[in-house]
Design a protein that fits this description.
CATH superfamily of the largest domain: Phosphoenolpyruvate-binding domains
Strand order of the largest sheet: 1-2-3-4-5-6-7-8
Order of helices and strands: HEHEHEHEHEHHEHEEHHH
Number of domains: 2
Shape: elongated
Distance between the termini: 74 Å
Structural class: alpha/beta
Number of strands: 8
Radius of gyration: 27 Å
């Protein structure tokens, strides 16, 4: 039985910290957002880092009106002022909070304007030139540095932080040492939310799924099958036209023969 829908607030999430792990999916379309809400997913996120994504956000909000939806701002924000402008634009459309992987300085400026901000800990995909794609925090030095970074985000005013590909034991410990909501992306069961991308859950691509994810369906195979069906349908249409099987009598509109004869006679008299 699905729980009654209630649109969470940041206050609600803070009160739920430590009580249960919330489900959390990054969606990429209104259809996915609607499905996530119908399924009972607790939290959602989506992109807001391109013109196309910004145009799509109102449709996602409309598709899941009772869901807490956080949006991801563009990477490489030039200033706190730019971050604040983009964040307020998203909130005015209907977003519940804003994800930002920028520095604590920029996050603090956003938080000072009462913008609910989500920071980032661990592996940052846009920063892998410095770290490579790997787990972060497996050494004592990295573990201590993660704690320091977490406290910097907390002190800057972030209410939450994604924690990506961090050893689950460390992530669980860190979650117990902060007032922030820690959102586990490949960082185990001990955080406050369990975060996955819809692409991974649905099996939306023909690549090896990340170790920290799980595919519950194979949408790529289904989309491949549907594309093959499209090609076959178009080929059948071409064949029917060439063999004069389409349009068939059932596809035609007819008129009374006497009316046709009279119409032709009058038209020919005008030529």
């Amino acid at each position: 039985m699905l729980r009654p829908r209630k649109k969470y607030t940041v206050y609600d999430l803070q009160n739920l910290k430590g009580k249960r792990c919330l489900t959390h999916i990054h969606v990429k379309s209104p259809d996915e957002a609607r499905a996530a809400e119908l399924a009972g997913v607790d939290l959602m996120s989506c992109s807001f880092d391109s013109h196309e994504a910004q145009l799509r956000l109102p449709k996602i909000i409309k598709a899941a009106p009772n869901s807490f939806i956080s949006v991801a701002t563009p990477h490489g924000l030039a200033s706190g002022e730019e971050a604040i402008r983009i964040a307020f634009k998203a909130l005015e459309i209907g977003a519940s909070s804003v994800y930002c992987s920028a520095s604590p300085k920029i996050i603090e400026m956003m938080a000072n304007e009462k913008i609910p901000v989500v920071g980032h800990l661990g592996m940052v995909p846009r920063h892998v030139t410095w770290t490579n794609y790997r787990g972060i925090g497996k050494t004592k030095e990295e573990a201590v540095e993660l704690y320091k970074q977490m406290k910097e985000l907390e002190n800057a005013g972030a209410y939450a932080a994604e924690i990506e590909v961090v050893p689950h034991e460390l992530a669980s410990f860190l979650a117990s040492k902060t007032s922030m909501i820690l959102m586990s992306l490949g960082s185990g069961k001990g955080c406050d939310t369990q975060f996955l991308f819809s692409d991974d859950i649905l099996g939306d691509y023909d690549e090896r799924i990340p170790r920290h994810s799980k595919a519950y369906r194979n949408f790529f195979a289904e989309m491949t099958r549907l594309q093959e069906e499209r090609v076959d349908a178009f080929k059948e249409y071409i064949k029917d036209v060439e063999e004069k099987k389409f349009p068939a009598p059932d596809n035609l509109i007819s008129m009374d023969q006497d009316v046709l004869d009279q119409s032709i006679k009058e038209i020919e008299s005008m030529i």
